[in-house]
Task: inverse folding
C-alpha cells in the first residue's frame, strides 16, 4: 500500500473572509491592533521588548483599576488564566465555594477537583446572577472554606453578578476570591482594588478588541503570600507563579518564549482603552446595548436575563417560536458575513447570543445586525414591518448620547 504524506491538493495562502463578529467572542480586532501584530518580531528577552512589557503591565493595572504589582498577561486564552488561579491557590484538601450559574462556573468546579480540592457548589438558575444570600449561607455552613470563586460576567447567558458584594461576603468569612472577568474587562464597571478582588483573570478577545490567545491576570499581595508559602508544589510547571515571578518581575529570568507579536497587539489595545477612558468605554457598550435592545423589542424578541443583571456586551435572546435558529445563523453568516452565537447546554437551540464587545460595539454593527435580522426573519415567515427595528435603534441612540470627551477614570500606574 502506498502511503501519501503531506497535502493531497494544491494549497495556497490562506485569506480569511471579512466577517462582522457579533457572537460571544472573539470580537472584531481593531485595525490598529492588527497593524501592531505585523511589526518586527523581537526576542522575548530583548531590552526594548522588556521595556514594552513594563508599559503593558501599567496599562493592565489601569484596565483592572488596581495597583497590584503582579499584574500581567498569561500566554494562553482565558481558560489558562482560570487554571493559573486555581492551580496556584488551591492546595489538596482545600474547600472552595464555587458559584455556578452557567457554563464557566462549571469549569471552575472541575479546576478545583483537578487540584485535589473539594468544591462546595452554590447553584443558581442559568440566566440569573449569583445570589449573595446563597453564598453567605454556604460560608456559614462551611467555615473551613478557603476560597470563593465566581464568574462576574457569565458568557453563556449574559448575566452580570454583583462582584463587590460577593467579595465583601467572602472576606467577612476570611476567604480569598477568584473572579472570572473574561467578558467584563473593558466593557462593564470593574474595580479590583475598590472591590478587594484577590485573583482575577480575563481574555484578550472580548472587550479589548484584540485577537484571542492572551489572558490578563492580577493577584493581590495576599495571593502572593499564599503561593510563596505553599507546602506542596504547584501541579503545573508552566503556570507556577513562583517561576513566573522572575520573568514578569524585575530580573527577567527566562521562563518561556513569550508570544511577542501577540503582546504588541495587547499593548496597542490597552493603549486604545486608556486613550478612550474606561468610563467612556463602559458608556459606549451600554449605549450600543440600549440601541440593540430597542430594535429587538420591535421584533418581539425577549431577553433571557432580567434587565437589572443584564450584560450590555452579551445579549442573550429567546429564539422566536417556529423559527429555525440554525438556519437564521447560517443565513446571517452566508448572506451578510455576520456571525452571532448559539446557546450552550440547556439553552442550545433556544437562544441566540449577540456580542457587542470592543471594536464590535459600534453603531454600524448594530444597524447591520437589525437590518439583516429583519430581512432573514421576514423571509422565514415572521410578520415584520421593514425598517422599524433600525428606527427604534436610532431613537435609542438619540436618547443615550455619549459623553462629549473621553474621561479617564485613573492614570496608568
Result:
Amino acid at each position: 500500500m502506498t502511503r501519501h504524506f503531506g497535502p493531497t491538493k494544491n494549497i495556497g495562502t490562506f485569506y480569511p473572509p471579512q466577517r462582522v463578529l457579533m457572537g460571544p467572542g472573539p470580537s472584531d480586532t481593531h485595525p490598529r491592533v492588527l497593524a501592531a501584530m505585523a511589526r518586527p518580531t523581537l526576542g522575548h528577552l530583548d531590552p526594548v521588548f522588556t521595556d514594552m512589557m513594563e508599559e503593558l503591565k501599567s496599562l493592565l493595572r489601569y484596565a483592572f483599576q488596581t495597583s497590584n504589582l503582579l499584574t500581567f498577561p498569561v500566554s494562553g486564552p482565558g481558560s489558562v488564566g482560570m487554571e493559573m488561579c486555581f492551580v496556584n491557590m488551591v492546595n489538596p484538601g482545600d474547600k472552595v465555594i464555587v458559584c455556578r450559574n452557567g457554563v464557566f462556573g462549571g469549569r471552575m468546579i472541575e479546576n478545583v477537583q483537578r487540584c485535589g480540592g473539594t468544591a462546595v457548589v452554590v447553584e443558581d438558575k442559568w440566566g440569573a446572577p449569583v445570589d449573595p444570600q446563597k453564598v453567605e449561607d454556604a460560608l456559614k455552613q462551611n467555615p473551613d472554606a478557603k476560597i470563593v470563586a465566581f464568574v462576574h460576567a457569565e458568557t453563556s447567558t449574559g448575566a452580570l453578578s454583583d462582584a463587590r458584594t460577593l467579595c465583601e461576603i467572602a472576606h467577612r468569612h476570611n476567604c480569598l476570591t477568584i473572579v472570572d472577568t473574561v467578558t467584563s474587562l473593558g466593557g462593564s464597571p470593574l474595580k479590583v482594588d475598590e472591590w478587594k478582588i484577590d485573583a482575577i483573570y480575563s481574555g484578550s478577545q472580548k472587550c479589548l478588541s484584540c485577537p484571542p490567545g492572551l489572558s490578563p491576570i492580577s493577584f493581590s499581595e495576599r495571593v502572593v503570600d499564599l503561593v510563596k508559602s505553599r507546602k506542596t508544589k504547584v501541579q503545573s510547571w508552566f503556570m507556577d507563579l513562583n517561576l513566573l515571578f522572575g520573568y514578569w518581575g524585575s530580573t527577567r529570568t527566562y521562563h518561556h518564549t513569550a508570544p511577542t507579536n501577540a503582546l504588541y497587539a495587547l499593548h496597542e489595545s490597552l493603549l486604545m482603552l486608556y486613550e478612550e477612558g474606561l468610563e467612556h468605554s463602559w458608556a459606549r457598550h451600554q449605549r450600543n446595548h440600549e440601541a440593540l435592545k430597542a430594535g429587538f423589542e420591535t421584533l418581539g424578541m425577549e431577553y433571557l436575563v432580567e434587565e437589572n443583571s443584564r450584560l450590555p456586551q452579551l445579549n442573550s435572546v429567546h429564539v422566536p417560536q417556529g423559527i429555525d435558529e440554525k438556519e437564521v445563523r447560517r443565513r446571517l453568516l452566508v448572506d451578510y458575513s455576520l456571525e452571532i452565537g448559539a446557546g450552550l447546554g440547556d439553552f442550545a437551540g433556544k437562544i441566540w447570543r449577540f456580542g457587542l464587545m470592543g471594536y464590535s460595539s459600534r453603531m454600524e454593527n448594530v444597524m447591520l445586525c437589525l437590518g439583516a435580522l429583519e430581512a432573514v426573519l421576514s423571509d422565514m415567515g415572521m410578520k415584520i414591518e421593514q425598517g422599524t427595528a433600525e428606527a427604534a435603534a436610532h431613537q435609542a441612540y438619540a436618547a443615550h448620547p455619549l459623553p462629549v470627551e473621553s474621561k479617564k477614570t485613573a492614570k496608568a500606574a
Notes: The CA atoms of residues 159 and 307 lie 9 Å apart. The first strand starts at residue 20 and ends at 21. The chain has a mean pLDDT of 94.
